[in-house]
Amino acid sequence: MRILAVGDIVSSDGREYIYNNLGKIRRKYNIDYCIANGENTALTNGITVDIARNLIDCGVDVITMGNHTFSNKESGIVLNDFERVIRPVNYPPETEGEGYFVEDLGNVRIGVINAMGRVNMEPLDCPFRETEKALAKIKDKADIIVIDFHCETSSEKLAFAHYFDGKASVIFGTHTHIQTADAQILSGGTGYISDLGMTGVRDSVLGVKKELIMEMYYTRKHVRFEKAEGEVWFSGCIFDVDEKTGKTTNVERLYFSDKEII
Ligand SMILES: [Fe+2]
Ligand SMILES: [Fe+2]
């Protein structure tokens, strides 16, 4: 099956791009299943009920989150009400929602896990151990397992990917909003990329007005962020997974503006 993973969708521009183009992208690339990171979809980051509903309606099968999960006051409601929206599995156990989702598509069963790294990030529970626990819970219920590892450093991501190589069909990174050029199939058959990148305004820093981020770093003063304006680029990766073996057979990076979508 062909799995499309979409990098952090940022603000109203990223959302509108997905609403308008995801159907076309799914058809053009014959996508069977789509997973997208939605931690930055709301204006304040996080996600709202309307945004979750619209993303699912336009063709996102599972929405993963990250360190911005609870930046919006509706995020907890979303996690409780939408089983297709998952948050990092290594949040405290009392946290709203779940860290994984399993779906039976008839011919194949797919499980998606979301975890978060700890280097230069919030000190959550161990992502390795909590992912192991989630894998133990879903491995008999899913033929294909995909993990979004939301994480800052490529070293933590790659160590995580090698640790779970062969135990998951696909592991992709999110969070940095910068697509990496290391899409590959690991020795145990796991498809991998360190970061999918960002679906948002390209002429920006992380989707924020570049002038404001430059000012922040130059003056070291607090700066109020505003969303950038301009052309939106889609950033993601396609993983072809053999449904019998659960191994990835091909990985293809995607990075384009809407001009390339017919
Ligand atoms: Fe993000
Ligand atoms: Fe993040």
What is this entry, summarized?
This protein has helices at 11-28, 49-57, 75-81, 127-138, 154-163, 210-219; strands at residues 2-6, 33-37, 62-64, 85-86, 100-104, 109-116, 144-150, 170-174, 184-185, 191-193, 200-201, 232-241, 248-257. The protein has 262 residues and is α/β, with parallel strands linked by helices. Bound molecules: fe (ii) ion (2 copies).
Written account of the structure:
There is one protein chain. This protein is about 25% helix and about 25% strand. The protein is of the alpha/beta class. Strands 1, 2, 3, 4, 11, 12 and 13 form a seven-stranded mixed sheet that branches. A six-stranded mixed sheet has the order 5-6-7-8-10-9, covered by helices on one side. The chain starts with a strand and ends in a 5-residue tail after the last strand. The structure holds fe (ii) ion (2 copies). The site of one fe (ii) ion (FE2) has 6 residues, from loops.
